[in-house]
Design brief:
This protein has 254 residues and is an alpha/beta fold. The chain has a single domain, classed as TIM Barrel (Alpha-Beta Barrel), CATH 3.20.20.70. Helix content is 43%, strand content 15%. The protein is built from 12 helices and 8 strands. It has an 8-stranded parallel beta barrel, surrounded by 6 helices. The structure holds 2-phosphoglycolic acid. 2-phosphoglycolic acid (PGA) binds next to strand 8.
Length: 254
């Protein structure tokens, strides 16, 4: 399966900085076709980047959205607005949204259904926190998140869904020295997710669902993480802010 490498810029970069990243990144990456690449800038840079990426293979994604098409939801962005910006992807259920903004599996499920209704592809983030890991609850947490977030989703819709396994304890929060999960731990999580997807849908869906890893992916560890049999790509935060380091990660996805 072709790998998917997505940049999650979080709340970083002005429009000008976003454009200079894309110019530099395009030059380094040229016609690299080994991986699908998605850039998820803040909402404020979507319109400009959608123009910048017009004739390129790099895809555009948003980091969040509301589940309604329009209405009295101050400060929110709807799926139709993302389509208007020519976004192809949206990240949903990121742990920072869950933890800081109290997003529940129930809410994320509503957002997933709305994204699919409007033809958006999505990256669904799941993963356990450190307390859950230390008390041996990782599998239970991951399974519940999958079952709740993917409620009422059918096999055909699963083709549009990428799952990102992001153990919360491995997320850098801007610290470049933060440690990623070991390739063995990450692989174990991915294998478990694939089994849950098989039980929820079928073997074929589970085989064809991309499961990408997120949490301190950087040029130094990308190759080993991406070489694991059940790791189909990466969701990259901190190391995606620099065009050179993100390009190195993309190049590691052979
Ligand atoms: P990180 O972030 O690469 O900075 O750990 C990943 C994410 O939160 O998606």
């Amino acid at each position: 399966m072709k790998k998917l490498i997505a940049a999650n810029w979080k709340m970083n970069k002005s429009v000008e900085e976003s454009v200079s990243f894309i110019n530099e990144f395009k030059k380094i990456i040229k016609n690299e076709k080994n991986a699908d690449v998605v850039i998820c800038p803040p909402f404020t840079a979507l319109a400009t980047l959608s123009k910048e990426l017009k004739n390129s293979k790099i895809k555009l994604g948003a980091q969040n959205m509301h589940f309604e098409d329009a209405g009295a939801f101050t400060g929110e962005i709807s799926p139709l607005m993302l389509k208007d910006m020519e976004c192809e992807y949206v990240i949903l259920g990121h742990s920072e949204r869950r933890e800081i903004f109290n997003e529940s599996d129930f809410l994320i499920n509503k957002k997933i259904i709305a994204a699919l209704k409007h033809g958006l592809k999505l990256i669904l983030c799941i993963g356990e926190n450190i307390e859950q890991k230390q008390s041996g609850k990782t599998n239970e947490v991951i399974e519940n998140q999958l079952k709740n977030c993917l409620k009422n989703i059918d096999k055909i819709q699963m083709e549009k869904i990428t799952i990102a396994y992001e153990p919360i304890w491995a997320i850098s929060r801007g610290n470049p020295n933060h440690k990623a999960a070991t390739k063995e731990d990450a692989e174990e999580g991915h294998k478990f997710i694939r089994n849950v997807v098989e039980n929820m849908f079928d073997k074929n869906i589970s085989k064809n669902t991309r499961i990408i890893y997120g949490g301190s992916v950087k040029p130094e560890n990308a190759k080993e993480l991406l070489s694991m049999p059940n790791i189909d790509g990466g969701l990259v935060g901190n190391a995606s802010l620099n065009a050179k380091s993100f390009a190195e990660i993309v190049k590691a996805a052979k």
